[in-house]
Amino acid sequence: MQTKLDERYQNTSQGRKAETILRNCVHCGFCLATCPTYQLSGNELDSPRGRIYLIKQLLEGQEVTRKTQLHLDRCLTCRACESTCPSGVEYAHLLDIGRNEVEQTITRSPIDRMLRFALRKVLPNRNLFAFVLKSARLGRPLLPERLQRMVPAQPKIRQNPPQANHPRRMLVLQGCVQPALNPDINHAAERVLDKLGITLLEAQKASCCGALAYHLDAQPEGLDAMRRLIDAWWPYIENPDKPIEAIVVTASGCGVMVKDYGRLLKHDSAYAEKAARVSELTKDIGEIVAAELPELTRLLENCPAPEAETIAFHAPCTLQHGQRLNGVVENILQTVGFRLTRVTDAHLCCGSAGAYSIVQPHIARQLRDNKIAALTRDDSTLLVTANIGCQMHLQSGTPMPVRHWIEILDKVLCGQTEDRYP
Q: Which of 235, 251, 280, 323 has the maximal Cβ count within 10 Å?
């Protein structure tokens, strides 16, 4: 693609990066076939190729309008287009640049600004979010039925934390909303890794990974959150006596962001090297368990096998497209003994996409309902995923249980054959 950037962008790092990405695009249109929003609307401006043209126009100095903002907002950043693109176009990076430029030009409505501000301040604040969620659960019976479905029920929690202190040590990202929505995900990861000879540690001052603010029109705020998280983790990383092997993330949405710290902070002289090291250490929980499959198989010999359970696995976009870990969790579940159903259009997003289901509820509900239909087409008894956002979004549209896969692996290893998936 030929480009002629406006002089405002020609000598900036963002402009040079955007120009390189734009020139890699060959207009082939392969991305249209895998774009969830284009599949719904049929409007090319709601496709990666259309959005690339919009970003190209704004970087070349053409007028930026609310129409530009609308179509960039509608993108889920699912990155299915990147998995399809034969030219390796780094679309998500280009989208970050385009959205940031649009945000400097177009003023949002007061209601939109207030909603996005509230999301950035409430969701990453673990204590405040827990209070809001508890209040919503108490008032749930008074809400309209549609809103009741959006308030997740209180999960059953099994604590019994491991007592062993293994030589192998890893850090875990607690997350911001996950401890309130479903704390047993990290508890389950702790128990599973304990059985595999790994101690999972929590850094008490660790907070949000920065993804929410970064993707909600506040990139500097998101970068500051990344720096704070690096500061909380760094004493564990540089400890020469008890070094950690990895940073484990159980929410694939957070994982794809933390793995990108090295790129996002590479121009920060104080944090560039630290950020690169954090990205290098970060692993999805699926990567950790997959590396221990021989030991896992040995442990399973002493556990009751699943009773011919058939489950449907939803691979989050952040796992299969963002981290390129397609098939990793599926292999683990099949090793355990579960039968996996075939899911049509498994590459398409469920509509959760961070805060997308809140700021774009109409599109998100359509995508959720389509995904649930695909997941439940065969006779599955349980829906399983790898990201808290996907879990909550899917659960709001179906009475069938939706669980994180590490929870069911934990219960198999612990020999819980009754009431396994309450």
A: 251
